[in-house]
Structures are given as structure tokens and as C-alpha cells.
Amino acid sequence: MTISVSSSTSDDNVTKNTAKNATAKQPKIVVKRHGIMRLLYTCKHTFNGLKWMCRNEAAFQQELMLFIPLTVFAYMANISAAQSAMLVLALLFVLFAELVNTAVEVVVDRIGLEFHELSGLAKDIASAFVFLSMLMAAIVWWVVLWA
């Protein structure tokens, strides 16, 4: 916010100029947080993003509905803790990929909804990332359980 003050720097001039400029749209002031407050603030945004994904993104919902029972199975199966962890991490990677895919789609759509070759390419590449993560998860599960 710009405050112009005349040569007499009384508080009245600052107040008047601030009030005059208050009607114009002001840029949002970013407050840097530190320590535990930064962590709490970051967690708030993290859970907002996950909540949005669970409510609005069908692919994420489907992958989450597979993740939950498969995670239970991975821990109940007669395999080592390291193998169980590998299975769960492979499933988590699919969810990570879906988060990235949706983020790319949202940003591309924010730029503009009209078709552009590069926008389509960005979405295709993000979708390929999800596909490859699913392929990787399937391979990990196959190797751990049947190989």
C-alpha cells in the first residue's frame, strides 16, 4: 500500500491519505509465519486440499477406496513389515500422482479454458504420471505377493 505524505508529516496527513487510498484494491499482505504457527498453518492448507480432493475428484475417491482395504490387507498379510511398507508406499505413490495430476489440471484450467496444444500436453503428461504410478504399484504388489 502506498501512502503519500506531504512535507508536513503529521498524523492527520497520513490518516487522510490512507483513508483515500483504502477504496482502491490493495494487494494482500503476506505474513511470514515461523515455528509451530507455520506448521499449523501449513497443516490447515494441507487438510483443505485433501478435503477438496475427497469431495470433488472422482479418480482420487476411487483410488482412496482401493487404498484403504489394500492397506489393511498389506498389514494383515503374512509378509514382513518391510514388504507391507513397500505395498503401502506403492499405493501412496498413486495418491501422490493423482494430487499432482489434479494440481496441473487446475492450474491449466485457471490459465484459460480454451483449447491450447500445450495445455492439452500438460494434462496428458500429468495423466501419464498417474498411469505409470499405477503400473509401478501393480508391479510392486505382484513382486511382493507372488514372485
Please give a structural write-up.
Mean pLDDT is 87; it is low at 1-18. The protein has helices spanning 11-21, 35-56, 58-76, 81-111, 117-146. Helix 3 runs antiparallel to helix 4. The longest helix has 31 residues, at 81-111. The protein has a domain at 58-146: Helix Hairpins, CATH 1.10.287.3610. It is an all-alpha fold and 147 residues long. The protein is flat, with a radius of gyration of 25 Å. InterPro entries: DAGK, DAGK_prok, DAGK_sf. Residues 1-17 have a biased composition (Low complexity). The chain crosses the membrane at residues 64-81, 87-104, 125-144. GO terms for molecular function: ATP binding; ATP-dependent diacylglycerol kinase activity; metal ion binding.
Q: Tell me the CATH architecture of the domain at 58-146.
A: Orthogonal Bundle
Number of helices: 5
Helix vs. strand class: mainly alpha
User: CATH class of the domain at 58-146, please?
Assistant: Mainly Alpha
Query: Tell me about the biggest sheet?
Result: none
Helix fraction, binned, reads: over 70%
> Order of SSEs, N→C?
HHHHH
Low-confidence stretches: 1-18
Task: Kindly report the average pLDDT value.
Answer: 87
Strand content: under 5%
Radius of gyration: 25 Å
Q: Find the count of extended strands (DSSP E, 2+ residues).
A: 0
CATH fold field value of the domain at 58-146:
Helix Hairpins
Write the layout of secondary structure elements.
Elements: H1 11-21, H2 35-56, H3 58-76, H4 81-111, H5 117-146
Summarize, please.
The protein is mainly α and 147 residues long. The chain is built from five helices and no strands. It is flat and about 65 Å long.
